[in-house]
Amino acid sequence: MLKGKLMKKYISIMAFVAISLNALLNAADSKDSIESNSLRGGRAGIDKKDSIESKKQNMLPSLNMTDNTDFANLSPTHHPTEKKDSIESKNQNMLLSLNMADADSTSLNAAHRPTNNIDSIESKNQNTANRPSDKADSNTLKIQGVVTTANKYEALLSSINSSVQVATEKEIKNAEIKNSDELGSLFAGLQILNNGGIAFPMASLRGISSPDFYSTTLNLYVDGVPQAPNFIIQALGDVEQVELLRGPQGTLYGENSQAGLIIIRTKNPLKGNYANISLTGSRLYEDINAYIGHNLIKDTLWIKANLRYIYENGFITQGSKNLNTAQSILGGVSVYYQPFSNLLATLSYNFNVIPENKKTFYLTKTQYENGYKINVGAPSVDNMMGDCTDPSDPTSCTPNNSTLGNQNAVYSYNPFQKINAHSASLKLEYSLDSHILSSISAFNYAGSLANPYPIVQTDGKSDSGYFYNTTQFLEELRLDSEYDNGIKSSIGLYYKYLLVDNGMRGYIANLPNDFTAFGFRANWNTKEYVNTIAIFGDTSIPLGEHFDLGLGARYQYYHAKVDSPLSPGAGITEPFSNSKGWNIFNPRISIGYKLNEIIKLYIAGTQSTKAGGFAKFPYADKDEEPYNIEQVYSAELGSHLNFLDSRLRANVAAYYMYIQDRQTYAGTALNQSIVNVGDAFSSGVDFDIGYYDDRLQASLGINIGVAKYLNGAKNVGQVVIAGQLGNYDVRGQNLKYSPLLSLVANVDYNVWNVKNHRFYIGGNARFYTEQYHYDYDRSNASDDLKEKAYILLDLNMRYAYKNIVVKIFSQNSTNSRHAIYARSLGGPAYYIPANPWNIGVNISYSM
């Protein structure tokens, strides 16, 4: 039961929502319906024949979307346009609808989308300026309208030779997704975890993950810009579509990803003016989100902006106080300028600030299993071993009530984390006949400050703590082309500079030689400088009426240099500097076979490389040496299917991935280092099926897979760290974060609609079998670091009236307990719990 200030807070929130609802309803009564708003927006919209953006949108021909013609596979000679047309019409003939470096590009022109007379109210949250007056809803596209940019040009999903899944804006909103680490609610097999801190993201897909938080196996792109590796967990703003590309990527993208790629596309004002504001009040968080896009000068200048604030109330309690609170603020602005019909420039700036985050709150097993409650007056952990008669002899120590591992003591009362992230980018796109030349220049800075450790204290200054700062600059040039014979090609040049600057400052040293009781120096700093140069290319070649051949290759030179004037661990006593470079070549081949309008089959083979480098936290003498590259060899056999006049669609892919020289941490307790321990494999099946009609939208995604180390001699060995010998034997063990089965199901049903009134019910369910938080530790208290199987269930009811949608929702409705991370420091396990049950109300208004 909510008490005191918390109760007052929620009463105020609900009162505010009620007042806002009344005001918005009155405002809505004075306005036209959403359909007439769409018509007004169309009159205010741009002249599409003059816009380079429209060239990318209209490269697919205007065919009847209700028939079974898979027009993404038609050659240009079959398109209903003449070759003698202008540059604009030539570009409209191209299926090559811009590379993903411009993720702002739209799916299909609304005029080409299937219509849906039921969902037009909620779909107002999409851009409506270019929609016809028949209430088209791009959120409920039939299969011919499901568009992906997986091949760097917009194409129907049913034509792609890889495993791709697309989530619409409506699905994202219905699932109450606020942050990128919640996207697993829509994609089976995807997990993005807070691995001991938001600056330590851990992404896993198809059982493939990374021990190095700054060299992820799964990259995140937002509007064509790759995000900093320690910032793939971020709050989301005006998201329009999310694509998940499974398997190795690198011949079409500047970044080289081994497990897969997430592509986020935000709203685009070139498709029409829009505005939206939404308010959420719930047991666990409050959320205000607003975004707007507008054409300032007809056919020439557009602008968009977004702003979002999220406050998380926390749920770990001590008496009436919540201990794991957090807040985040994000926003951005983009300007689109088209001085000529074949040139578009986009300048963007975005920020994401987290002034407070205490979600990295570790619990003992007792606290974790006792409803996330901490006893009033519980002591804070302040020692490693207890009372010792001889500090050099652990056997002389007797644990006390504040010793690490005591089940009633608090790991840390103030595990603060702060993030200050900024990004800016300039995109230039130039179209000429059947080619699009593009350039993207981007700058990212993500600075974080934290103290996730027990025992140690800082001097209280505002800049004291463990800092992790990344500075990233990148440039990508690419040329996308389509030829009269139906061949499509992309070729690109990519450069990235990444500086990882991390260390500690302001810690209180309570041991000789400036050491803390936790075992690291009170002040230290290490920097790694990474330069990446890559040339990549990909082509699709039609082979008659039914077959197509895909070929791609990537050459990359990767160079890492580490400079540590003073390292944190006792194992490194002198300043050190080291560097190493790697030449990397990755090929790709695929063959597609279109049996008929219902079935598309493909087989693909790809080789990808995870870069080597240096440990960013060089705790042990082993960290003075680089760990080597990790090779991934992948084979995939899949199909895209659609039935019932495209209302039912399915995708299935069987895959096998051989992982050579896998990177992981090895050692003992605190003394661990990243090493290449040996070889592993991951094999399984991805399957998703969805049904979409005027009233019902339902989908099911399943990943069944096994990811294990092989039984070879390479997977057993030892590593010497700070004079201590650490043995490892991972033969036959499951890789971390690789459940045998993960399942995601979504349903949304229009129960009732009369004129402008609509009522919906919906839900989302996720299920995961058991999995491990560590690669090699399987002995701690017989499975304390193993996450047992769990299921999560979310439910919602929505009422839509003209421009307004009101939703009541519950999350984790069965109050399932699971941890997003668990660790052991040589003793009992500690846990960071995931969110318990939540209930709330959301109201949104769009124009």
UniProtKB/TrEMBL annotation:
InterPro entries in the cross-refs: Beta-barrel_TonB, Beta-barrel_TonB_sf, Plug_dom, TonB-dep_rcpt-like
Region (Disordered): 32-87, 110-137
Signal peptide: 1-27
Keyword Electron transport among record annotations: no
Compartments where located: Cell outer membrane
Family per similarity comment: Belongs to the TonB-dependent receptor family.
Gene Ontology BP annotations: iron ion transport
Gene3D superfamilies according to UniProt: TonB-dependent receptor, beta-barrel domain (2.40.170.20)
UniProt KW rRNA-binding keyword: no
TonB-dependent receptor-like beta-barrel domain span: 382-802
Topological category with respect to the lipid bilayer: Multi-pass membrane protein
GO CC term, one of those recorded: cell outer membrane
Record's compositionally biased regions (Basic and acidic residues): 45-56
Keywords, ordered alphabetically: Cell outer membrane, Ion transport, Iron, Iron transport, Membrane, Receptor, Signal, TonB box, Transmembrane, Transmembrane beta strand, Transport
The TonB-dependent receptor plug domain, residue ranges: 159-260
Cited PROSITE patterns: TONB_DEPENDENT_REC_3
Polar residues biased stretches: 57-78, 110-131
Source domain of life: Bacteria
Main subcellular location of this protein, as a coarse class: membrane
Protein name: TonB-dependent receptor
